[in-house]
TrEMBL record:
PROSITE patterns: PROKAR_LIPOPROTEIN. It comes from the Bacteria. It comes from Pedobacter yulinensis. This is DUF4625 domain-containing protein.
Amino acid sequence: MHYIHFKAWVMAMAVIALMVSCKKQTAHSPEMLSVNAVEVGPNNSKVAYTASDLHLAARMIAPGKIAGIKVQITLDETNYGWDFVKTYTSPYAGQKNADFHEHIAVPENARPGKYTLLMVVADESGGKAQGKAGFEIIRDLSLPRVSNASLISSGAILNFSGLIEASNKISRLVIEVQSSTWARTFTDTAPDMVDQARYQVNKDIDLSAAPAGHYHVNVTVFDKVGKQALYAYHFDK
């Protein structure tokens, strides 16, 4: 009888030890090459507009270091539409993990419809992993727009200029400047711009407090009914 109890106790201890061992192995298991948290459009809206920028973001996990990140966009229903293919290396190559963040200009003549985004991360050993997301391109001629836009960095001053047009009248201009260590948002509601259908903007932004580095700039124009157009830029300070 005591032998049976002892045998049962030994078996129970063996099961517990196996469970603990599995937990430890899981906790220390290496990360796998992967594409995670794919985001398409502002706030992951899964919507883009012609003649505007498409926001893309994702978390890349690459224990073997990233060699490149391929982005491919295709129209779902037919081969006769806008497509896009590009492999990004800078600034991601050589990193083990990276937050991918890019903006792609959607041409004015892009065919509206359902599209598929394919993102493929390759590591330095030749391994690959991919992530997919669907989104829609919409043509809305009433969206605000900026033409002849220019972004010039000259040390402590960042200048943005261009012609803003908004059939629903201009509400505000928002400029977001961010790097990996510094970020600021500048909102312009100049009285001579608000409620206008056309406005030639020429705005200087003081970046004297910003450290040296690579910066992303998002310029967004909002109209009076809440519609917006986003334009993305990069610069080095």
